[in-house]
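The aim of this short unit is practical: by the end, you should be able to scan a pair of folded records and say something sensible about each. We start with the first protein, listed as its amino acid sequence and then its structure tokens.
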Amino acid sequence: MTPTSTTPRRRALLSTGPGAHSAPAPATHDSSAAHDSPATAGTSPAGAEPAPAVDPAPVEDPAQAAPTTPSAAAGTAPATAGPSPRTPRPSSMFSSLKVRNYRLFFLGQVVSNTGTWMQRIAQDWLVLSLTGSSAAVGITTALQFLPMLLFGLYGGVLVDRLPKRPTLLVTQAAMALTGLALAFLTLSGHVQVWHVYLAAFAVGLATVVDNPARQSFVSEMVGPGQLQNAVSLNSANFQSARLVGPAVAGLLITGVGTGWAFLLNGLSFVAPIAGLLLMRARELHVVQRTPRGKGQLREGLRYVAGRPDLIWPIVLVGFIGTFGFNFPVWLSAYADDTFHAGAGAYSLFNTLMALGSLAGALLAARRGTARLRVLIAAAIAFGALEVVAATAPSLWLFALLMVPIGIAGLTVNVTANTSVQMATDPAMRGRVMALFMMVFMGGSPLGAPLVGWVTDAYGPRIGFALGGLVSMAAATTIGLVLARLGGLRVSLGWHRGAPRVRFVPRTRTEEHLATV
């Protein structure tokens, strides 16, 4: 009865040691179609190099890890289009930028993300100015993410069926028009709070398809060998724009008004649209699209439910996204109510958090692997830092704490995103990433109004501390669940005069007793 044959695979779930690199990847699809494209540089399609190591699933029955439905296996054959042997190996922090298509995508996103952050800051401040209510800011955030909660899974089904590049052209154009419409209303002096609510909801509808399409399209641009690096650089891109966007938005709001921030955001979408149009289709690592059929939504949910290495990271980011990432509510309240410092302080808080997030993204790009152990540690640190920041007595101490919060939060996001993508069958990636984004972003319609109400009723410090405590509790609980699934136990002890908490393998006696 002693499960000696499965213990090594199960222990690898939270492993961070060198042995994890040599562990086989999860058997999520047919071994003859191990990647969604030919092998990376220096290999032939018949001898594709394995993707960067991720924590394998603690599956005791190999049949559970293989697709059991035709559509799950469809589209996973190596692509024949595109000169993928030219794809560089991941050898540096910026190695994926050597891929021309990804470089065009990256540069377009630099411009668009800067505009997006400008609009976020202007939108939150406009709502606060019109209503004077943190709860109203929370409602705006909720409306922007409500479509993801309602329709996110259906967006993933569409993404698996549609070609990614044309789909992104449509969604980017739709978000550009929304920004321009809000700019017209604001600059003409006719803007009302319901206009902002409607614009936020419209952006959310476009995001339902845009987010999973962009997530899935990364692997088509760079191939599996560069996926970790490209995902990390995408986050670095987003966070570097977060450094510039809030600063510019603060200047525009105080100088000429919020309408100009909306206008520049609408115009910024010209850059990603141009980048998509300039890409070379023959160089994409194309995945065969999933044919239209019944039950594809249920199929995606069953696929995730049978994979502990997918479902638990998604559950964790759901808790953190719902309760820990409500920064528009908290930071605007701290700037306005706690420190009475205005839009400049709100912009400063976002800029410093972006600085930490950028550092976290670059560290993730350099790390090269996505491990669940790192995810759990970063999530616990993220919640603890929020609790500490909630008690900060001065504006400058609070502002400085935004840097480590940004590092920890970004590490959670990148590690969860990459580990889920790399463990997912390419034919399922759109649906799985839609579920990931639905849980991560779609929790805001539930969390933001609640956190906004707590912030209004009990003050920003209580609201911020509550979000951190929930995040920390969720990370600790899920960490213990993953440790048990991986055949590990918590070890408490002392090391060089200091307390130390570790995950260590359970003894064979303990494993035997656990199965009796």
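Turning to the second protein, read its sequence before its tokens, just as you did above.
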Amino acid sequence: MARKDGGPDRNEQAGGKKPRRSFLGGLFYWTAVLAVWGLIFAVVFFAVFARDLPDTSSLYEVDRQPSITYLDRSGALIAVRGTQMAPPVDLDALPDYVPAAFIAIEDRRFYHHPGFDPIGMSRAMALNLKAGRVVQGGSTITQQLAKNLFLTPDQNMKRKVQELMLAVWLEMKFTKKEILALYLNRVYFGAGAYGIEAASQRYFDKSADKLTVGEAALLAGLLKAPSRYSPVSESKRAATRANVVLNEMVETGAITPAQREAAVAEPVRVSRTLASQHAQYFIDWLDKQIRGLVGEPTEDMVVETTLDLTLQTDAERAVRRILDRDKGRGVEQAALVALDGEGRVRAMIGGGSYADSQFNRAVDARRQAGSAWKPFVYLAAVEAGYTPATPVVDQPLTIGGWSPRNYSGNFAGQMTLAQAVAQSTNTVAAYVADQVGRDAVARAARRLGVTSEIGLQPSMALGAVEVSPLEMAQAYDAFANGGKRVEAYGISRIRTPSGRVIYSHGAGENGQAINNPSLYYMNQMLRGVITSGSGRSAAIGGRDIAGKTGTTSDYKDAWFVGYTGGFVAAVWVGKDDNKAMRGVTGGSSPAAIWRGFMEAALPKLAVQPIPNGPPLPEGWVAPDPVGDMMGQVQDPYAQPQEGDPNAPPIVDGEPVPAPKPLPNDQPVVRPTSPQPSPKDAPRSEKKPEAVFF
């Protein structure tokens, strides 16, 4: 349309296009467009991520594995395995500094955010980018609660978004106080404890409302990594972390600097039962047995055990002291098993540190027994007619091309069997085993409780048999209890917390494994090991003690197994890599551990002298005391006298061993001078070397 003045219309000049919008009109238009698309994106986004959100109706349900509580023989708590829950604690019942400790270290802005903290997330992101790794998390307490209640620990974008959504939902549904209470009652504190009440009971043997400032700081510090900051296995690291929490509490005003100093000055004492970490080897041993006895646990159980925590503590101290003392000689690991006369395990040490290694050397390790094996040789001998007074000859010997040598490197000539036992003479043990039959030796060991494979090669007589400390204690128990075979056990009863009995150990009779006079002879000779033989360092004044040392070639294993009336303990020391120690014998480190343990334990036990066992044969007359057979009883701590032709050289306070024997499978070669043997000790037929019992 033309203008009146004949010029073109403005719309025609623009080619028919609409006029431009004003700035405000454009801003309104594009804001509306973005809002619509943002809404569409948000709906799609939340539809995708909320599609498989968990059911929040499970908020108050607890999905956990049944717990197993282990008690010692007097009812004291040893350990709790599985999930431990406690009744929810009322937040108002806690001292103010307890929840404040968690807020200070986990979420300072807890009372000022809507479930997620953009400021905290930004700060954490900046610190992580600067460090090039994750050094700080940005999750709030509400987010952590959402994750613990509803989500898996997977680290991915979808889970993080769901965590934010659930955190906002929790903030809309609950008050801050309710969220904090839920968090403290459900978070995991390590050691199987969920919730602050269970954690307080587990670590400090007290209810949460009695926590001190230092204890609250320690528990708050645990949450970052419960195993890494455990006050049991990582005490120094836990203390450092607790100090960080205390500093944060001062900065947030939860406590005063004076309260912080008081908390630092007051030691935090962890529960004695948890601090006794070596008892965990015993619990591991039982844990494997429980499912075989009662099946997979479907409810909480209480296991009443045979362990005596006071004796366990004595054992731990004895082992730790000698490991520290003799580490310069290459003593790296130790194991100890103590049984009473019925086979009940009263103490068990499976290694130097449970925190460093959970491998139970008392049960699962198989190491050569050395001369600690010889009592089975001599038991077979006395059952075949030998007596402590039987004359034998210590002289060169070759059996199947194998020539055993004595520890001293010398040969003492004629002696009694009792002297050969006391001095642990290798040639006599090898000769006697060959005479009575190594199969008879194997049967004697098996009858007493050795369960490992037993080869019949000639070196078996000197302990070339791999056994566990538990087996050795079990087998020696027959010498201590009157000749009865026992099977070591650690579970007396399994019941529910309400008292319903699920399993009870039977009180079946132990069969007679050693009869008399064989038992009488063996106890006499093994007493001689302590009074005048290789085990003199284990002697305890006023106690009826017997036992046997054991040392393997190249000092790879050292043993002492000793007993008194109705109580036996087996001790092994060595290295896990089977490398040699520096001159460590059964009469040194193992005997020192055994003596240290027994000196502390025996006054707490109603032990009697070693029993004689079943009635002796009618008309049988006991021989002269074993001390008379072996000559003058020696001072247990006397060193070999200079000039003694049979005394081995001394290096670092220990005798130097003979060279390592070189066994092979050649025909038997007899000594040039026949050794005397009893007429009623028949020679058994030889068995193939590959035979195992």
